[in-house]
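Thread: quick sanity check before group meeting

JM: Hey all, I'm pulling together slides for Thursday and realized we never actually wrote out the predicted structure for the chain we discussed last week. Dropping the sequence here so it's in one place. If anyone has concerns about the input, flag it before I start.
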Amino acid sequence: MDNYSLKLLRSEVIASEDYPTAAENSSFRNGTQQTLLNNVDSSQRPHGVDVEMSWDDATWILTSSFIIFTMQSGFGLLESGVAASKNEVNIMVKNVVDVIFGGISYWIFGYGLSFGMSPGTNAFVGVGHFFVDSTDPSEIGWLFSHFIFNLSFATTATTIVSGAMAERTKLSAYILFSFINTIIFCFPVHWIWASNGFLRKLGAVDIAGASTVHLVGGTVGLVSTLMLKPRIGRFENGSREPPMGCPTNALLGMFMLWWGWLGFNCGSTFGISGNKWKLAAR
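JM (edit): ok, ran it. Output follows.
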């Protein structure tokens, strides 16, 4: 074994530690990390952001974010594949709307409501970091990494609802909904992922968005379905239900969602430094 290999092995042995506990695990999540910053004033940092991260962590976070964003394509293919062919384009455009208009609204006010920490911030909602931007070299890396990762979660929470509303809403109404759902999404995020959120203070743990993304998306989807109401009698009196638009697209969308969920779970370690890479591997 050469000297380099011996040094590498020695460093691995020294750095090796037991797997983190569930409580330690929860602190790695992007919105529940401990405040460990030394060179950035805590008054300038969003609640719950651990900025002691390397470029390896940033690369991991951004790569996971890009993988999560591919879920928009997966949702679009799955929904358009099971819907009537005449509505395929409409459904795909709505998934584009999720990213464009949902992304704009999250940049303008969503991130601030979730993780802002200016005067007025409380256990219920954040204030600050509206129109997310920074030119400060000491914060620009972690701020935008944190923003992009949470943006991918916010747009996913909205596109979950698009399936419940497929073939039933006008495009203009859906654009308005994408803005409104961003607001809905931000409050639970602050409650459980911001360091001063009341659910976090009560000990609640959400590692990969089970409540903030999936529960919120599912609940809003249920409410939307109830508001739209069933089309009773729509396919009676000899009227035939339209066939699936494209089963192949539906299956392809399912696979894209499948690997997108890997980005959800593995990326939620919010880095790979320290022991976080072990959590991602598990």
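AS: nice. The chain is about 60% helix and 0% strand. The radius of gyration is 21 Å.
JM: adding both to the slides.
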